What we know:
The complex is a heterodimer of chains A (227) and B (433).
Chain A: H1 5-19, H2 29-40, H3 45-55, H4 59-66, E1 80-85, H5 88-106, E2 119-124, E3 136-138, E4 141-143, H6 148-159, H7 176-183, H8 203-211
Parallel strand pairs in A: 1-2
Antiparallel strand pairs in A: 1-3, 3-4
Helix pairs in contact in A: 1-2, 2-3, 2-7, 3-4, 5-6
Chain B: H1 20-25, H2 30-35, H3 40-50, H4 62-67, E1 78-83, H5 93-99, H6 101-115, E2 119-124, H7 129-144, E3 160-165, H8 175-182, E4 206-210, H9 211-223, H10 225-229, E5 239-246, E6 252-257, H11 262-268, E7 278-282, E8 291-292, H12 302-307, E9 316-321, H13 326-340, H14 346-363, H15 369-382, H16 389-393, H17 396-415
Parallel strand pairs in B: 1-2, 1-4, 2-3, 5-9
Antiparallel strand pairs in B: 5-6, 7-8, 7-9
Helix pairs in contact in B: 3-6, 5-6, 5-7, 6-9, 13-14, 13-17, 14-15, 15-17
Amino acid sequence: MTYDAQVAERLEAEFAEIQARYPQPRSALLPMLHLVQSVDGYVSPDGIELCAMSLGLTPAEVSAVATFYTQFRRTPGGTYNLGVCTTALCAIMGGDAIFERLAQYLGIGDGGTTPDGLFTLERVECNAACDYAPVVMANWEFFDCQTPTSATALVDGLRAGQDVAPTRGPVRLRTFTEVARTLAGFDDGLAGEGPSAGAPSLAGRDVARDQGWQAPAADQRGRKGAR
Amino acid sequence: MSELTPVLTARWGMPDSWRLETYRRDGGYQALAKALTMEPSALVDEIKASGLRGRGGAGFPAGMKWSFLPKPDGGPRYLVVNADESEPGTCKDVPLMMADPHLLVEGIAITAYAIGCDHAFVYLRGEVVHAYRRLMGAVEEAKAAGLLGQDILGSGWGLELTVHAGAGAYICGEETALLESLEGKRGQPRLKPPFPAVAGLYARPTVVNNVETIASVPGIVARGVEWFTAMGTERSKGHGIFSLSGHVTRPGQYEAPFGITLRELLTMAGGIRAGHELKFWTPGGSSTPLFTAEHLDVPLDYEQVAAAGSMLGTRAIQIFDDTTCVVRATARWMEFYAHESCGKCTPCREGTMWLWGTVLAIQEGRGKPEDLDILADIPASIVGKAFCPLGDGAPSALTSSMRYFRSEYEDHIHLGGCPFDPAASILLEEVAL
């Protein structure tokens, strides 16, 4: 293992903190692997070994888990993970065109990382934001209703070191490793930032408001809305 | 004419809608206070009487699921909320958790009390970090206010709630795969029986319910069974979120009674994209057979969608207009299942690869006439033979698209290419810088 003693000690302490959230320690393995990514930028051999030691597993058992899940990187990647949704709906609504443009703009293909280490580009599967299609996920934050131009503008902004705001997320996009730490369950204090919802989430609520529609009152016995 | 009935979506968009203060000002946690004065078994009976069915796709009655737990034996019992929302087209739970996480937390507390659980979990897909922040924030607020933790509202009963982020795997939406994953393993499904009610998380009795199901519980407890059953149809009671996406003027979330039709929803959403006509749609995600314009008036409840040849699923209505190549859409859905198949069973692992490869070849102009026979055969080797529902649902789009649009597959083969212009399907205008 090549972790210096301080890093290893901190990781072990935080592994224990994660394990305390569960009745059985092995349940902590996924968050522990997120935590490894927050230190190394990917699931490193050292991280696998440390997880295995912490849980009394073999490195092979930990690797078997780590390789099952798409969010765990097997090799180092970019500061910003750009995931273009190319499942059917987003792909057709413009996701394919966005991916092609980004691939050309960055000079990398699916899974590739730019030589400056800034961007990893991926095709991702449906990310539960279809009403905002086409969607780009940057470090697992929503960039909704994208076009090829807005996607390359996102790249330009990040390259220039500007603060870039997800559509529904904190006011400043965090790095891959910062977000990995959040996903390990460590509060980053950003829950209060960003909107309650975007416009499509509110589309039905707005129609109901305009029409004066609401759910029946608690004591109503009528058959409102019934068919 | 059906009207919309915002219940779960009522607070979305309010300033600080995710905060405890906002939720409480709107009557939040009163249902929990009421529940804690009731016998747990009476709560289970109430949810049974409401007819609330699981909102994660399968539609199994929630109260019945709760009542399947064996009698308490002194050991732990668990509630696990399935927040792994990943079925293509499904996009209702994530906005709910971002806008109103306390509604889910309150539903969890009531459900946990009803089933005798003192440690509950939310299994959230890891690819939505802001939803995770909002949920963790809600749990911390609820703990600080004595709504989670020990001796909740002075009842003597306590609940711990752990919010767990997954790491990317569609299969973890299947309840036994989710439990495996929550135990720190590869997310591969388990053989059933035993069902989770008997041997779930850590082989203990466990209830697994979808986010929207659990979020519906506080409303039923606070406003009553009759209130809930006044909405919906005979066997599909209550309100549900209908998610419209794709070639529609105003895509988004529309909460309505079960039984609303797509024609009605489209009226509310401004219709199909201007200048175009509806070609095909999924009633409940990509695992449910496609519908066409002839199904616009099918009441969207479990029974009537099934009678019309599909499944209500998660009410994930993906809408495609006349510019869309159905072979292209299907090829991409088949790629999804091939990518997401967990590899445990051969029919799904191999079958989804064949489906993808064969449809893709046709779409790219490399198809041969006999490929259509292969495509007609493969589904029978997967459906009913796969280990879990992922395989059963994988060929749905293919089988139904060949039923309604077989000539389009034949055209691709005869032309040696795709007759559609993908640029014509793109939704958003490119804005020049």
